[in-house]
Amino acid sequence: MAHAPRADWEDSVRLIEECAGLEDAIQGVLAEAFGRDLEAKLVDALRRDGSLAVSVAAGCTGGVCGYVALSRLQSPPYALALAPVGVRKAMQGQGIGSALIRRAIGRARALGYGSIFVLGAPAYYGRFGFSAEAAAAFPSPYSGPHFMGLHLTPRQDAPAAVIYAGAFDLLG
Ligand SMILES: CC(C)(COP(=O)(O)OP(=O)(O)OC[C@H]1O[C@@H](n2cnc3c(N)ncnc32)[C@H](O)[C@@H]1OP(=O)(O)O)[C@@H](O)C(=O)NCCC(=O)NCCS
Hints:
Layout: H1 7-10, E1 14-17, H2 23-34, H3 38-48, E2 52-60, E3 63-72, E4 79-87, H4 96-111, E5 115-119, H5 122-125, H6 132-135, E6 147-151
Parallel strand pairs: 4-5
Antiparallel strand pairs: 1-2, 2-3, 3-4, 5-6
Helix pairs in contact: 2-3
Bound molecules: coenzyme A (COA).
């Protein structure tokens, strides 16, 4: 099954890294995608405490239509958490989320990070190379089929407990 971005949005969507000046628009996208404002608040808290390592927005004709964040973990030291990722409801299912995630992974690799962890649907994140097997040696309260890892370099972190940035306490 092909998961490449569809051609009908490729000309009208661009990926924007760093995202300075787009904070309010990103908040709006996340609040709409998740139907609540916790994820928008999470991104603000990550930005404030300096944990945000990679930030990618999708810019569409009408403004920002998608966003993904990678944040530094408290442990292991060279690992990141992927969360949140959200796409405006009307734009979902067109490959924008996949394009955001692939760009964020590429940026993390270029920055020299060792691993990315994510909690989510294996059917979705598996297509980017995440697997529960890759996270198995890294203890977490979320361990199980939905807690997945992706190792970016052969020089990955030694197995250690996965501890998210303190801002994630917002999600309870
Ligand atoms: C998850 C999300 C970011 C995906 O963005 P998107 O642009 O719609 O994704 P893409 O177009 O790249 O991929 C669509 C595929 O993802 C699948 N998908 C989307 N959400 C999924 C989920 N929660 N579980 C499993 N698969 C999912 C779709 O079924 C589709 O599969 P297909 O390619 O086999 O047809 C978007 O649906 C969204 O914002 N959802 C609400 C917020 C959310 O749940 N975020 C993820 C948790 S952190």
